[in-house]
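Now for a sample.
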Amino acid sequence: MRVAIHNIHLLPTLKFHSYVYEILRNKLARILYFSDPNGFSYMTSLTRFALHKSLRENYKGIEWSEFEFVFTVGDLNKKADILINLNLLCSKHLSPEFSSSVSKFNGIKIFHIGDYFWYRPATETNKLLEKVGVDHLLGYAMHDRYCSYFIKSFPKYHGKVWGIPFGFTPRFQSIKPFEDRISKAVAVGSVNPLRPLKEQTNNFFESANHFPDENWFHKFRRLLVLKKDYLQVEIDSMLP
């Protein structure tokens, strides 16, 4: 099937989300679609500039000349069967991602749900996804099986979440052979409060109300932080 990647110029970073880089480097998707909610022709030149000026210089091994750039949903319908958005929905300004042109694409639409509890209330994101007819979601876990907040907020996407690794980068390379390592674990990741006061508080009323007796998004990691002195023989903690 012919796969198009949506709004690649809005990706958070290709270096962190390496699966996006591998898709492009191996040409698993050759069509790059840019939805333009304003319809101004200068958006086309601006997007081309962004791609060629920054992405081409920063990410070696991607042969941009072998990709097809598509700027209208009419062309997209002719050339693609699947539209994949890997931008994690983390932009504050989401109109290009959910413009009316996306809803007019006749193929299968797959969006990466990202941190659905962080940038805005999950029910708000769900309304946007349903509005443009997104068919399936990618997630870094099987949210539709294991997260009650997701299950409540995204009722039409039960059984439609594909769990994939969040990313893989050179920082995860095996430096020391397994047999030469000491018997110890490394704790990594983020530890965020369920009610982060330094963020936009309106984003978190919904998720905090759903878990009224919890204080942390990452309960297990927080427990490791509290017990790190007790566990220092078994674990090296890189947790904040």
The first strand starts at residue 3 and ends at 6. The first helix runs from residue 18 to 25. The beta strands are 3-6, 31-33, 68-70, 82-85, 108-112, 136-139, 161-163, 185-187, 235-237. The chain has nine helices and nine strands.
